Amino acid sequence: MSIIYDSDAKTFKLSTQRSEYQFVIGPYGFLLHLHYGASVGGQNMSYLLHQADRGFCMNPYDAGNDRTFSLDFLPQEYPTVGVGDYRVPAIEVINSDGSMALDLRYQSHKIISDKYGVEGMPSLYEETLGEAETLEVVLLDRVSSIEVKLLYGVFSEKDVITRSTVIRNLGGADMRITKAASVSLDLLRGDLDLLHFHGRHAMEREIERTTVISGVQTLGSRRGTSSHQQNPGFILSTRDANEEHGECWGLNLVYSGNFSANIERSQTSQTRAVLGLGDRSFQWTLSPGESFFTPEAVMSFSGDGFAKLSHNFHRAVRHNVCRGKHKLSSRPILLNSWEGVYFDFTGAKLLQIAESAKEIGAEMLVMDDGWFGDRFDDNRALGDWTVNEEKLGCSLKELVEGVNERGLKFGIWVEPEMVSEDSDLYREHKDWALQIPSRNPVRGRNQLVLDLSRENIRDFLYQRMCEIFDSAPIEYVKWDMNRSITDWHSPLLSASKQGELPHRYVLGLYDLMKKLTERYPNILFEGCSGGGGRFDLGMLCYQPQIWCSDNTDAINRLKIQYGTSFFYPASSVGSHVSASPNHQTGRSSSLNTRAAVAAAGSFGYELDVAKMTKAEKAEALALTEQYKKFRPLVHDGLYYRLSSPYDPTGVIAWQFAAEDESAALLTVVAADVAANPSCIYLRLKGLSNNKTYACGDAIYSGAALMNAGFKIAPLTGDYPAEVFYFKEV
Ligand code: GLA
Questions:
Q1: Which of 319, 406, 419, 475 is the most exposed place for a label (fewest CB within 10 A)?
Q2: How many C-alpha atoms does 554 have within 13 Å on its Cβ side?
Q3: pLDDT at 28
Q4: DSSP of 268-337
Q5: Is 573 helix (H, G, I), strand (E, B) or coil?
Q6: Ligand 1 site, residue 368, Cβ cutoff 6 A
Q7: CB 344 within 8 A of CB 378
Q8: How far apart (Å, rounded) are the C-alpha atoms in residues 523 and 477?
Q9: What's the number of domains the chain is made of?
Q10: Longest CA–CA separation in the chain, Å
Q11: Is residue 589 domain-shared with residue 683, that is, in the same domain?
């Protein structure tokens, strides 16, 4: 039993293997948070609550003359507006009378022996029956008759707790929701750090660690997608926390659209973290009898630093987020045509690429952008999903068969959410693109966005995709989305409901993805949004890997993949070896270094193999074969960040360790080298103190490698990299 209700103390205790979460039905029915952290052995933590008569801290009417009970400093489960708490709320509404107060009190609760689902959206699921339990707590505002159901899913073995909220209008008139968080977490301490992952196109998920300041720090996206600029996942940690030590709390959202996160240190030095929909990028009208489901949030706590926290998330992503036959499968090594030939290809050229791809050990050829309609550049033809047989010189089926005959699987690129103004689809259905009447649309990459909230448009896309996927043995689809969204207006919605469109778009996208992934269970879908602009747990429910970044520069990738690794496992990270000099940065680096970096994910190539010398092809083949050997370790092993790309030494190291401690793979890259250098000493992780390991001809004890370290001779040259494999003997 991971969820226990103590009816005497009125406490709820949610326990996982290494964490405990507690809250209490407090005075007057307010739900007060007590603890989220290391296990406290079931002790009732209500003793932590402190009441005092503090100036300008309001008291609920029910408290009578008691001036010590105030929601302004008591920790809460789902804080609201208008009840005397002036901190960031989890929910904001506009009641039918125009007032904005919401006074939620406990009504009832239920413990359910499996995991709840979220209507219209993906959420974590139980991999094995009985893996998770649900706690449902119903709160009610008696005046407005707005009911809020808090849902908690406890994955005990995984050390993960999920949260979601259902808001129901039990009143007689429409009300409006302007903020609906999935999670709010009140911690009684104010001495914390915030780690978050910001960035830009081609430089996603850079990490920033800041002090949680007095006042509110807000993160989020209003781009219609989870965005390159700010990932929905963030971490709160104690100031001393590092990879191995200290307490940390990770929060992330199973959602791919606009979101908002607020981190507040209050006047009483407590920390509140709120994550979900809101902050002027969301609104929803709820008519009598209707319910609104928030996306799901995922939380995990580690008392042993960031590595453990990442392992918790990686496991949950691989087992409880990703679905279908590919979630744990060995992902194919693919050769993607994009950086090799861009739009400049024919069927014959692709077959030639396939032949040379085979020579370097690739397992799949992916035909990227440029195969349909008049798509000779990125200004036109999106929406015209018919194969340009004239350009290819053959049918898609003939091309795929040709690729298959050369011993490779075949994958294809699509960008279904978009339409070019210069396309037959747009000429026929101008009104299918998001556009505000009487205004010119805002362009991005010279393309507009289709209104995915509309079922007929989704049906059209579904049909078109099915026709393509059915026409040939396609085994992989790269689903791209190459702009941020503007022009939020849909002709099917009344004026008062236009603000719902960003969320309705995401619901539409999920509906389409669900139908397609159910119809094509054998196809491996890879997500993409100009690289990693939609790298989130929502998309990972349908696409077990995501193209991590349009930046394939191995040295820039060190930062991008480092930031990505905090929440997302290596198997989900699409990473390719591209040409040198790199097309984004102009930097030159060796094939060995490019492959070493790309090997920390789902590996592939993105270059014109025909342009490689014989010697380069032979080296590439050897590197591919090496990756094949290590692939299970990379996908299934525990990931350790041994040093940071932000470290001034310029030495970046990471490691995969088999869960059974039988093997490890260590990669070291020098982003900077110096004259008269020192050796590099690295302490390995995840081995056994009692086992012996071979690395090349040398034999080491696990204890020596972990407690004293491994010695690497000084690295010199242009961005050198080395890979070491340790195998139990
Ligand atoms: C995006 C993707 C690239 C490539 C191009 C094609 O930028 O991230 O990998 O597929 O689109 O237009």
A1: 406
A2: 31
A3: 98
A4: TS-EEEEEEE-TTS--EEE-TT-EEEPPEEEEEEESBHHHHHHHHHHHHIIIIIS-STTTTS----EEES
A5: strand
A6: yes
A7: no
A8: 7
A9: 3
A10: 86
A11: no
Q: Name which of 66, 274, 50 is nearest 180 in CA terms.
A: 274
Is 1 part of a structural domain of the chain? no
Atom of ligand 1 nearest to the CA of 531: 8
Residue 4 lies in a domain: no
DSSP character string of 12-39: EEEEETTEEEEEEE-GGG-EEEEEEES-
Residue 536: active-site member: yes
Task: Indicate the top mutation candidate among 368, 584, 606 to test ligand 1's pocket, ranked by most ligand atoms within 8 A of CB.
Answer: 368
Catalytic position from the list 536, 553, 606, 608? 536
Domain boundary pick from 321, 343, 374: 321
- Nearest-CA residue for ligand 1 atom 1 is 530
Q: Is residue 58 part of a domain?
A: no
- Predicted confidence band of residue 280 (pLDDT cuts 50, 70, 90): confident
Active-site residue, 616 included: yes
CATH number for the domain harbouring residue 711: 2.60.40.1180
Do 464 and 566 fall into the same domain? yes
DSSP string, 460-505: HHHHHHHHHHHHTT--EEEE---S-------TTS-GGGGGGHHHHH
Output the average pLDDT for the chain.
Answer: 98
Of 341, 376, 528, 548, best ligand 1 pocket probe by most atoms within 8 Å of the beta carbon: 528
Quick one: 346 and 239 in the same domain?
Answer: no
Does any domain span residue 585? yes
528 CA closest ligand 1 atom index: 8
Domain co-membership, 601 together with 522: yes
Residues forming a β-bridge with 292? 167
**CA 530 to centroid of ligand 1, rounded, Å:** 6
Q: How confident is the model at residue 159 (pLDDT cuts 50, 70, 90)?
A: very high
Collapse the DSSP code of 168 into the 3-class scheme (helix H, G, I; strand E, B; otherwise coil) and give the result: strand
Q: What is the pLDDT of residue 457?
A: 98
Q: Where residue 176 sits, what CATH number does that domain have?
A: 2.70.98.60
458 and 591 together in one domain: yes
**pLDDT tens-digit map of 559-616:** 999 999 999 999 999 999 999 999 999 999 999 999 999 999 999 999 999 899 999 9
- Please tell me whether residues 570 and 462 are part of one structural domain: yes
Two tokens, residue 161: 């707790």
Residues 628 and 722 in one domain: no
Closest ligand 1 atom, residue 342 Cα? 6
Q: Which two tokens stand for residue 628?
A: 């094949």
Range of the domain at 507: 334-636
* Same domain flag for 290 and 204: yes
Alpha-carbon distance 191 to 187, whole Å? Answer: 10
Is the pTM of the predicted complex or chain greater than 0.85?
Answer: yes
Q: Does residue 279 register a pLDDT over 90? A: no
372 lines ligand 1 (CB under 6 A): no
Q: Going by CA atoms, what residue is nearest to atom 12 of ligand 1?
A: 369
CATH of the domain at 617: 3.20.20.70
What spacing in Å lies between the alpha carbon of 338 and ligand 1's midpoint? 7
d(CA 65, ligand 1 centre) in Å: 64
Ligand 1 pocket check for 264: Cβ under 6 Å: no
